[in-house]
Specification:
The complex is a heterodimer. Chain A is α+β, with helices and mostly antiparallel strands. In chain A, 43% of the residues lie in helices and 28% in strands. In chain A, β2 and β3 form a beta hairpin. Chain B has one helix at 2-12, and strands at residues 27-33, 38-45, 50-59, 65-80, 85-99, 106-120, 124-133, 141-149, 160-170, 176-185, 188-195, 200-207. Chain B is mainly β. Classes of the chains: A alpha+beta, B mainly beta.
Amino acid sequence: MNRIVLVLGLLFSLLLQAKEQVLKVDGLVCSFCAQGIEKSFKKDPRVETVDVDLKSKKVKIKLKENQSITNQEYQTILEDAGYTLIEVN
Amino acid sequence: MSRLVLMLCLLMGHSLKAHPTSFKGSWMIESKFSQPMTEIGIGYGLSSHYALWVKTMGFPMLNQDKIGLIQMNHLIKRWNAPESQGNLYIGLGGGRAYHSNQNPLNISPLGLAFIQADWETRFIYMMFDHQFFSPGAPHQKISRFRLGIAPYLAEYNEQSAWMIGELVQFDNLDLDVRAILRLYHKNILYEIGGSLNGSAIINLMTHL
């Protein structure tokens, strides 16, 4: 029982570590688009780094330690910047 | 030095058009200059769908007439697709026209409405806009069409380039045909080119 608790605790703590998520975005066609997305995410105190890839139309978000952003929040941030979230990985 | 270059580019800017709206909290600076018209504008993004602009326009060929106005732009619809983006904008503005050839200086109120549609991929860019001015303004309408092609694809951190053809018409005057090279890096966009009537073009636009 103790081992199970320990393993669950470890797994939970891993989940709370800094994590990276990749967002697939529609409408991402130019540098101004990329800049708008980058600035919008950098305003969020939970975000460590933002990396926009115009070729793959993906935005890589690295979160600060023990931080999380829901898919709904990702969608809102992107909509406020003027873009459409397709999927989160 | 870089600030001096930036200021010079702003003051020398020709025929450049910023996006009418941008992301929430953004600042947009655009400058335009051509033989028939100069323009400098500063805009603030209230949201991704609304932006407030303050602009000044000059008309060197019309006795140095000038316009000062405040304008609200609205993104009516954006079509985001995997490889493209299309936009439809409208805008309304109000201000004053200064007819400097008249003594005493004649100042008249004016209104402005515009509509703009654009569509772009990473290879092709098309834009049409039409501005309507109220009576009392130096011009009553200005129309513009642009078609641009990117000779190569660039990433966000790389310098991108566009070759653009532009047609501009003031009122019912002859079309002004222009060829422009657009250079684009991160949030700074420069344009250099010329018109068939012989005037040079140097532009700058930035989003902050």
